[in-house]
Amino acid sequence: MLQERKEYLSEAWKDGLFILFCTGGAGSICSAQTRALVHLGASAAIIGRNKEKTERMAADIATARPGARVLAIAGVDVRDPKALQDAADKTARELGGIDFVIAGAAGNFLAPMSQLSANAFKSVIDIDVLGSYNTVKATLPYLVQSAKSSTVGATHPSIGGRIIFVSATIHYTGLPLQTHVSAAKAAVDSLSNAVAIEYGPLGITSNVIAPGPIGGTEGMERLAKSDPESVAKSAKRVPLGRLGSVKDIADATVYLFSDAGNFVNGSTVVVDGGSWRVNAGG
Ligand code: HXC
Questions:
Q1: Residues 112-133: tens digit of each pLDDT
Q2: Which GO terms describe its biological process (predicted)?
Q3: pLDDT of residue 105
């Protein structure tokens, strides 16, 4: 049993020292991840394309804890390295650095390959893969600094300088209408693994969270539109007998960004109720 909260959430957590940079932070999954971290003491910047949506979500997340600082940085397309660099610099300037990064911005739609133009395929690859690369590239100097100056103490490994990529499970088996996303997410997983090896020696961890079928997300809503019964059918196919919740993903995020995740690097945390093992594409 947990004896004391601080064993899993270091002293630094209690003081709200950590600063999160999250792309796609206004989306259903990433906003829940951000909300959980802010609730536990972090400050955050959420990065999005749509100004109204990003600002509304930042204000909403800020209610998770009295006095929380949540910055909305809107008008940023993750495909644009300069825009991301400006966002990272602004976050560091206004919040004091960057300790945690969630590369969560993604593009997705259902389309058979026969109706997928080269540009449509490229758009998803660019948002997911290039966007994730741009996110890490822009924040890397701050993560290096965070890992170096961690105040957690000699008895604890550094807790600063951590990255989570939000991926998927569909590419483990393949899924119809998702050739573009399958290719993109496989590359995101590889990117994370390479970052883990290259920057582990500097104290930075890089891991993937792979959500399965999660209720209340944009992806699920699209599925429901294409077939209203599909959501209930998806839930029945999950070995644990239910859809995941955004809280399930937030909990995995807290794990990776807490002391519980100190020695986890280059891993994928699959949060799908066991789904992909029995259903193609989760
Ligand atoms: C075929 C399509 C299409 C569709 C767009 N395109 N939608 N092709 N079927 N349903 C084509 C367009 O015709 C165009 O190709 C090309 O894609 C780019 O479209 P644009 O609208 O110009 O691009 P852009 O504005 O950049 O939009 C990117 C996008 C869009 C990916 C197409 O859906 C988007 O912005 N999505 C971001 C939000 C999002 O998808 N979130 C969901 C994340 S959920 P042509 O040839 O005409 O130029 C998630 C869960 C994954 O990721 C889990 C997997 C199950």
A1: 999 999 999 999 999 999 999 9
A2: fatty acid catabolic process
A3: 98
**Ligand 1 pocket, 109 CB below 6 A?**
yes
Q: Is the pTM of this model over 0.90?
A: yes
Range with top average pLDDT, 13-27, 43-57, 219-233: 43-57
Counting every residue written for the chain, the total comes to 282
What would the two tokens of residue 146 be? 């965070």
Q: How far apart are CA 264 and CA 253, in angstroms?
A: 12
**Cβ neighbourhood burial of 15 (10 Å; 0-12, 13-18, 19+):** exposed
Q: Say how far apart CA 267 and CA 162 lie, in whole Å.
A: 12
Q: Whose CA is nearest to atom 41 of ligand 1?
A: 107
Residue 198, C-beta contacts closer than 8 angstroms, at least 6 positions apart: none
3-state secondary structure of 41: coil
- pLDDT at residue 29 tops 90: yes
Scanning the structure block, which residue is given the tokens 């119809």?
A: 176
Which residues touch 212 (CB under 8 Å, ≥6 apart)?
169, 238, 244, 270, 271, 272, 273, 275, 276, 282
Ligand 1 centroid to residue 193 C-alpha, Å: 26
Nearest CA to ligand 1 atom 9: 111
d(CA 272, CA 38): 24
Give per-residue pLDDT as tens, 98-108.
999 999 999 99
Q: Tokens 């109706």 identify what position?
A: 115
Q: Is 116 in the pocket of ligand 1 (CB under 6 A)?
A: yes
pLDDT grade, residue 150 (50/70/90)? low
Terminal Cα distance for the chain, rounded = 32
Domains of the chain: 15-278 (3.40.50.720)
Which residues does residue 206 pair with via DSSP β-bridges, in sequence order? Answer: 163
Q: Is 167 a catalytic residue?
A: yes
- Rounded CA-CA distance 36/44 in Å is 11
